[in-house]
């Protein structure tokens, strides 16, 4: 338990518990999940090793009309360009068909790549993903604890992203989408920066902001603004500049000092 009595997201043995479950999907999102299952099965069939939900929908915290649908597809073999095109088509179809979601995102990976990267992709599947179809790779992966190694290998690459976000915004990409991406990556990185000291796991970004602020109070106002933008993104160039020019570089520098830089993949 946290000092305020809140759960730290751990199993009884101190390892990080899987955060989502199929029975936490709210009824309002059940038709979206079923439609995703049907479209994915029709598009890929036996090429799939497994399909996972992640994000707020399997955690049971999604908000109708404001949350997105997040899926990860794991293939037996490396996904092809045609596989990626099919995923983009399914994303667009789901977004157009269901007003309950504010967009859909599908990640594609292959089973061998997940097994070969246990401290990042493996952790993601084992702890942050909820099985939807096929086999569950979590059965082959280790248990995870909130360590400095896990922090480094999941988010020790934040320093690479601010320039990418600036380029995306300057290149005409939807500013709301850029703000959402930048805010989420920065908040997740800020949380994993302090995760080993706090000794637990949460994907709740507003809660993360308050946890991080205990260790880095000078960031408090920026953390709260960033967490709010991650949940309800707005096309605010000033907010994006705050993230890319101030908060993200500050978090990245502290990350480098505390945990080091993510191993190149």
Automatic annotation (TrEMBL):
This is Nucleotidyltransferase domain-containing protein. Coiled coil: none annotated. Residues 50-92 form the Polymerase nucleotidyl transferase domain. It comes from the Bacteria. InterPro entries: NT_sf, Polymerase_NTP_transf_dom. Transmembrane segments: none annotated. Pfam families: NTP_transf_2.
